Amino acid sequence: MKKDQLVPGRRSVLRIAACLGAAATAGLLVTERGGTPRGTASPRPAGGPQAVAGRPVKASAYRLQPMTAYSPPRLSRAMPPVRKRPFLKLSTEGRTMALTFDDGPDPQYTPEILSTLREYGVQATFFVCGEMAKDNRDLLREMADDGHAVGNHSWSHPLIPKLPPSRIRDELGRTSEVIEKTLGSAPLWYRAPFGAWNKHSFEIGAELGMEPLAWTVDTLDWTEPGTKVIVRRVLDGAGPGVVVLSHDAGGNRSQSVAALRSYLPDLLDAGYRLTVPRR
Fold first, then answer.
1. Which of 204, 208, 202 is nearest to 185 (CA)?
2. Which one of 103, 106, 247, 248 is the catalytic residue?
3. Architecture of domain 96-274 in CATH?
């Protein structure tokens, strides 16, 4: 007998198997169309509004329905550690410094500072007050468009340690909200007015996703000591990781504007890279 010739018994077995397979296939196709093969139990619906007890549900009617009313949770930023003191300088290597400006944005002085920074291709950090930011959102957008960091400097520039926690939360929270609504993201850094921090400000700042940043060199430009004095303070205090404090609002800041135009090219010529703090 040839190897490929089947005996009658084997032919009968294969015919029966083929018939059973065809019947099973027909049953699966009917199930996909919503019918139920005779003699089999109704398929259990996967869920959805049409899954009514005692009524068969078409596959197409419930397979596209969600299993539950689940929706993915909104992700929030990770809370940074609660600091006991602010950062005073950048943790970077090389000749890197940071220029920071407080109290703005001011429609008279901030645009001039932004123009000078743009001219030299330098980024800085602006710690803004909420009551100033809400009326000058165009300047916030200009800061962000130029690659500057926008930080939180409270809403009304109060002395933080004299406030109850609820007021501190309000001062920082309202300002972060203005920044986030304007720029699409909340600030990552904050600075206490007058450099006056306390335990509650560190805790609330961390809850809002911000790190505290102070300064290394204070120009005291708010006292209006003269342009040359401001320039000398910046150049004398320059060094790797240094954070310079200046102001672009809160009074007459024409000396601060003029000083920036003087010391900025000197810093660049000395090989310093002016940047923003990184997390």
1. 208
2. 247
3. Alpha-Beta Barrel (3.20)
Summarize pLDDT for 210-261 with one digit per residue, the tens: 999 999 999 999 999 999 999 999 999 999 999 999 999 999 999 999 999 9
Which segments of the chain belong to CATH 3.20.20.370? 96-274
Average pLDDT over residues 162-181: 98
Query: What value does the CA radius of gyration of the chain take, rounded to a whole number of Å?
Result: 34
pTM of the complete model: 0.73
Q: Side chain identity at 133, as an amino acid letter?
A: A
Our answer to whether residue 148 is catalytic in this structure is no
CA angle 213, 97, 229 (to 5 degrees): 95
Of residues 173, 151, 154, 161, the one with CA closest to residue 199 = 161
Any idea which residue has 């600091």 for tokens? 83
4, 102, 138, 248: the catalytic one is 102
With cut-offs at 50, 70 and 90, classify the pLDDT of residue 153: very high
Q: Is 200 a catalytic residue?
A: no
Residues with Cβ within 8 Å of 190's Cβ and at least 6 positions away in sequence, in order, are 127, 151, 152, 153, 154, 172, 205, 208, 210, 211, 212, 213
